[in-house]
Design brief:
Length: about 140
């Protein structure tokens, strides 16, 4: 079994389309533009990856049960750093400063940030951070502590 796609509720689908296309290089595969049925299908290399639904009135609330964070794996730390640079150009909010390992002693790691609605996101590489100290020694970095 594997995840087919992930659907996110957003407050402004137009703004979110622009964000996810800029940060992840996703392509717009389809959308609904009726005032009360706004949505978008975002794909990578023709495969549906993310759906956005304009069904929220408020930003993401970490105190509500549901999504904790959404994580995307890339091949290398260079790709992580390129995404970080794009995000800094968008004034994105980061949980930690720069590329960090997943935990103390881990070689994998990445960047942890939020989208325009406060949804917590991660872009990581599976290796390359061996010997780098973690920002939080007592818990996984992806905990957004």
């Amino acid at each position: 079994m594997q995840t087919g796609h992930v659907g996110l509720n957003v407050t402004d689908v137009t703004r979110s389309i622009a964000f996810y296309r800029e940060v992840f290089g996703l392509e717009l595969a389809g959308e609904g533009t009726e005032a009360d049925r706004r949505f978008a299908f975002l794909a990578l290399d023709g495969k549906l990856l993310l759906t956005l639904w304009q069904q929220s009135k408020e930003r993401f609330d970490t105190g509500t049960a549901g999504l904790h964070h959404l994580s995307f794996q890339v091949e290398s730390l260079d790709e992580v750093r390129a995404a970080e640079e794009r995000l800094r150009g968008l004034d994105a909010e980061f949980a930690y400063d720069g590329v960090v390992p997943h935990g103390e002693g881990a070689g994998s790691g990445g960047i942890f940030f939020t989208d325009p609605d406060g949804i917590r996101l991660e872009i990581y590489a599976p290796a390359g951070l061996e010997g780098t100290p973690a920002p939080v020694a007592a818990a996984p970095t992806c905990g957004f502590f």
